[in-house]
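As noted in the main text, all predictions were made from sequence alone. Below is one such record, for ATPase.
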Amino acid sequence: MSLISQMSFQNPWWADKGKIYDDGHVRKVLSSNPRFLVPPIGESSLILGPRQVGKTTYLKVTIMNLLERGVEPTKVFFFSCDALKTKEDLVSLLSQYRSLINSEGGFIFLDEVTFVEDWNVGLLHLFNAGYFRDTVVYVSGSASVSLKKETLPGRPIRKLVYYPLNFRVFFNTFYKRLNAPTLSPSDVKGFFNASAKLAPYLSELNRGLLDYVKRGGFLATAYTDGDPLNSLYEVYKDAVLSDMAKLGKNERAFREVVEKVIDFYGSRVSENTIAKETGIGSHNTVASYLSLAEDLFVLRAFYKVEDKGVNYRSFKKVYFTDPFIYRVMKRYTKGEGGIEEGEVPRVIEGVVGEHLARELSSVGYTFFKGGKEVDFVIGDIGVEVKWGRGDVRDLRTSKGYVLSLDDFRIEGGKAVVPVSVFLYLISSEKVFY
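Prediction:
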């Protein structure tokens, strides 16, 4: 199929703008109850995030909004870049669009562009050549390696990460919106006083948290009846494996690394440990797979914080970025994706770490001689996740929180707060980070 044929096929609204309502992503949003709509960005942006999180849906709904506002259909161009291989393919695509369809400004949406080789070089060339004059450009991708370098130097394009819904947004959407501000955990007394005001909603918050542990923050899993693992396991597993294959990685090695992440979930682990307990052998190979899984938003690693700063050579703690991904990867490696009662505290610990990392900078853990560990630290604030009963003596720092199932207590600079309340209060209502 020629490029022009592919463009026409992917942009049916050029011939009939009502065709946008036939798009599968748009239909799902319009039929969902409650309806969840991500607010528009309004400026050129690079939107990164895990596969299946809803990036394509966001782009298609934005297109729908533009067409409903009266934007000329041919000035709205969408293209899924999975079939493109090089920057030359990308330049050719946009050159043909500009010469054959629309030579003026408008809106360009390039989906999953980050797997096109040197895509940023191709886009920079087009920016410099004036192809994007008077144009808002949205590009999306699954690999976060672009965040580690200047992607389009001197060009007005923001880098945003679209994560699965956090617990506050999940609870607001599928349970109820509570009258409570987003708070920093730095003021322990103030945070505790605000948390106590949510005590009347504790039972519902805990129910919502257990639902979140089961479903995660992906929109598709949240809207699925029954256990989403039954219908969506293959979709999410194949999305991750497809990205690994595109990047030339060995599936067996990835599977062994992921299985050990699950085995050591909530505990400190090193690349050497994983290498010795698998057939991989090389700690450098293990490190490369862990790093790549982070770039693909599958995993997040937390490093040891010491007096002199962060020790990147020490053991690390590794969690999945969403509890549903934990379930998918557990089934992929272990054959069964249910979360046993004894696993719940560890999975919730990962949820706490992910929420802290999204909202705050420099989140790590610390470990003292004699085996005393603090699950997470942010500056002088410690966070210990217990899930069951909590006692301020469980926290090995002088200031911070012990996260319990349903206890409220404060002594000096330490507070015991239910984990569901803590997650709700530290989380913002934003979707893009």
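The chain is about 40% helix and 20% strand. The mean pLDDT is 93. These features were considered when defining construct boundaries for the mutagenesis experiments described in Section 2.9.
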